[in-house]
Amino acid sequence: MRRTLIAVAVVLAALAVPGAQSPTYDVLIKHARIVDGTGRPWYRADLAIRGDSIVKIAPSIDAPAARTIDAGGQVVAPGFIDIHTHARRGIFEVPTADNYVRQGVTTLIEGPDGSSPLPIKPFFDRLLALRITPNFALFVGQGTVRDQIIGSINRKATPDEIEKMRVLVRQGMEDGAFGLSSGLFYVPGTFTPTAEVIELAKVAGRMGGIYISHMRDEASAITQSVQETIEIGEKGGLPTQVTHHKIIGKNNWGKSVDTLRLIDEARARGIDATIDQYPYTASSTSIQAALIPAYALEGGREEVLKRLKSSMRSELKRETTRLIMDERGGGDPQNVQIASCGWDHSLDGKRLGDITKGRGLAATVENAAETALWIVEQGGCSGIFHAINEEDLQRVLKHPATMISSDGEIPIFGRANPHPRSYGSNARVLGRYVRDLKIITLEDAIRKMSAFPAQRLGLADRGVLREAMKADVVIFDPNTVRDKATFEQPHQYAEGVSTVIVNGQVAFENGKMTAARPGRVLYGPAKR
Ligand SMILES: [Zn+2]
Known about the structure:
The protein has helices spanning 2-16, 98-101, 121-130, 142-149, 159-174, 194-206, 222-236, 256-268, 287-291, 301-309, 313-326, 352-358, 365-378, 390-398, 421-436, 442-449, 451-457; strands at residues 25-34, 43-50, 53-58, 65-70, 75-78, 80-82, 105-110, 135-138, 140-141, 179-183, 210-214, 240-242, 273-277, 283-286, 336-340, 382-385, 402-404, 473-476, 497-502, 505-509, 512-513.
């Protein structure tokens, strides 16, 4: 039956174009400068795709193809794999994920920072029903697991609760997660002792998963946090990753020398510790998480509001002042910027110092702390925090164990003032750090965006341009590729990418997203 159908299809194809040969390939890319993802030097070749796979790479391919794309000497690379995204923010409104695909990102990994859908399966079912453009995958979040069993409470888990959490992690892995993420900086991850994280990491590790962590502290205790992340990998028996590695706060700048040495030492003694990073000197999270100490966030919003009304307020204001001075505030209220305020979008994009002045107060750090508490009372906003230095960023970028991630989301074009990383991370590395500043080579940058994260995740059929691999492919001009999104005007797509192919189908070309929605849910090691 199947053979008959194929025979009929062949006859129909031949009839459609009288006299034409039936095409050997679905897509043929001619005159490519192949950067294959492994880090090896580029070479010139043609690349042919049939169905969802790369079937031939050779110096010259001249067989007939349904579509021929002349790359004209542009770079042809594996589609980029972004190992840290918050893409469930936006994927249901914008299933084409334009901000990512236009940069060449073809696979998005969600569930970072200890926060994931749970259970995972219904979420995957919704995605599959949606039809999306990029591939999509998940980690299971330790914070979400703990929240479900214990709640937002500051205490140790009982042995019974640990067993229940193990069951949830196991279920997440069976449903297709790639490992366990944690956000030990956030509530409720911050209430978790290291030993408890290790118990859950063991479950993910035994099932082939990795551990990836937004660490407990990225400021004054950054080296201890890297040590903790390494310890969890070592005792949990699984690969471990410091995610969106950065050094927050002027007093701590330069500490990447120490953190990278810790990673090197761990690797030298056989612990598979790696790093990912986004290429900006500002971070983004909620004003509350950034500027209120975590111990005051226990129990949820009502409890926080009660504390702010109580005698604790002056203590919290002191702590917030310190966090503006020494940590995410970057030493100046103007270094705190509002990304999005649900209760007053006129604040989006504004600086904390200016908002403080707008409330009739001098823009001192203490008054800015008062404004931050007021913002939390009004309902909270997400913020952007300019508190990272360029030297640390470049040092981390150059490290061979660092891959590129965005930590971004899928913005609604034009809405609010999101961190530009959602629109520009990959293009910024290729434009600013490869071409303009020459911090890393083109081949190394592509490796950090493709083969390296693929290998980290165990995605054996993606991340490298080679015959029999899945055809996720990006074509871009290395002379023009660049990010355009800024902190003032984030809603600008990256430039320089001409064609993006996902699972063999053209998803972006001629400056436009196509009608194709070829993205798949990718399943982790326990479900494959
Ligand atoms: Zn994070």
